[in-house]
Amino acid sequence: MPRIFSGIQPSGELHIGNWLGAVQNWVRLQQTYDCIYCVVDLHAITGKYEPAALQRRTWEMAVGLLAAGVDPNRVTLFVQSHVPEHAELQWLFNAVTPIGELERMTQFKDKSSRFESVPAGLLNYPVLMAADILLYRADLVPVGEDQVQHLELTREICRKWNAEFGGGEDYFPEPKPLLTQAKRVMGLDGQSKMSKSLGNTIGILEPPEEVWAKLRPAKTDPARVRRQDPGTPENCNIYALHGFFSPPETVATVAHNCRTAAWGCIECKKVLSDNLNAQLDPIRARAAELSAHPETVVELLGDGAERARRIARETMREVRERMGFLARD
Ligand code: TYM
Description:
Radius of gyration: 22 Å
Helix content: 40-55%
Bound molecules: ligand 1
Number of helices: 12
Strand content: 5-15%
Structural class: mainly alpha
Largest sheet: 3 strands, parallel
Order of helices and strands: EHEHEHHHHEHEHHHHH
Shape: globular
Strand order of the largest sheet: 1-2-3
């Protein structure tokens, strides 16, 4: 059975961009594949962060994923730092990773411009991502579009390592990305990708009144200035979100009522808010239930880490041997 691996950073809330772009696919794929999903806390220390917040967010991310439908009876769900082999393999992959490729990464270029002194972890971030995926010799990686470039680099690291240390064999399979229809969900500013670091998100566990407080001022078609101006749905991010959350007949009504100015943007957003909340309500309820039983979550993350480590240890045994390290005993 092909193996799936994917990860998500606990650097903020689980938002609808993550959900539509990746996590819905995680849930769908768990029916048919051997899936390993990871809260990648080691990735979340590549910028400035608060240790206490990291711990809380790692926990909340695990709860969010479970509430969104990741089923611990079908998949292996764990926290990255609970499996130290990720960091070990990352170090070994540094041996075959060209620094020029790391400097070329769009996310590195974007994020490094925000630092006066750039942390080395920010540059090496994609090497850790390659280690995450290849440690489990995964075939497929469900992600949003922003991770595709990192995945290309993973493929390159994989090829180089196989050529140098594989002993004529492709020990690591080359993983392929799996995208959804919503591979790049735009943020509430209507201009940039929905992203934790840009503060333009809607969290899947936010209460309905907060969802509305964020949707109400969200950017719509910039050419529609007054209520009576007809709008162009194709230029409106709220319309794009209707496409993900409203049934097709509502999407058609929204388009018509926008073009004819029969609805103002607030009416249109109200419908979106109702449809969004209808989908988020059961997720919020499950999250509340899980939060009331933290011991269950602790236990299943422990089981997940144990299962992941069994695979990781075996890979590392092979990798160490192939790379020429002296055996321990
Ligand atoms: P992260 O934590 O930023 O995002 C988690 C997943 O959500 C997707 N995503 C989006 N998809 C569509 N529209 C958006 N606006 C949007 N924002 C985020 C991301 O593409 C991702 O799939 N480096 C990764 C985490 C990672 C990982 C891995 C992923 C670490 N190791 C190994 C796959 C395999 C990241 O920062 O994702």
